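Record minuted for completeness.

…
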Amino acid sequence: MRALMVFIFVTVGLTTLSHSALADFQVTAAQNPFTPLFGLKTDFDQVRIDQRVIIRLPSQPAPPAAVGAQRQSLAKIEYKEKKIGKCLWLDRLGGSRPGPDRTLELLTRDGILIRAFLSEGCLAREFYAGAYMERSYDGKLCVDRDMLHARTGAKCQIDKFRLLIPR
C-alpha cells in the first residue's frame, strides 16, 4: 500500500510543470491554422564550464652523500634501457629529475625509473625544480602529444620513453 502511495506521489510530482517550465511556453495566435498552438521561446542562454587540472612532478633530491666505497658505487650505477609504450599513467608518476643530455628521469610511485627523451631544443637542466603538465582527457602522458612545462618557462614534448634497469 505504501509503495502504491509513493508511486502515485512521484508520478504526480514528475508530471506537473513548474513555473519556470511553463514560462518557456508562449501561446501564439491561431490566425493561421497551420501554426502550432504552443511555441517555444527562441532566445536561449549559454553556459560554459571549463576545468583545468595541473599535475606537478616534484624534483627528486639526489641520493644522500655516502661514505667511501658506497659513494663510488652510487656514482657508477649504469642502466640498461628497455623499450616501453608510448604513454604513461599520470597517477603512477611520483617525481622527476634531470638526466644526461636531453633526458628527464621520471620516478613512479612503485620505485620504477623511466627516462623520457625530450624533443629537439629542450634542455633537461631546465627541469631542475620539477615539471608540470595539464591533465589530459585520458589521464596519460603520451609521446608527441602532451607538453611538459618547467618552472623556468620551458615547454617540451617527449620523443620517447625508456625503462631503466640497473645492470
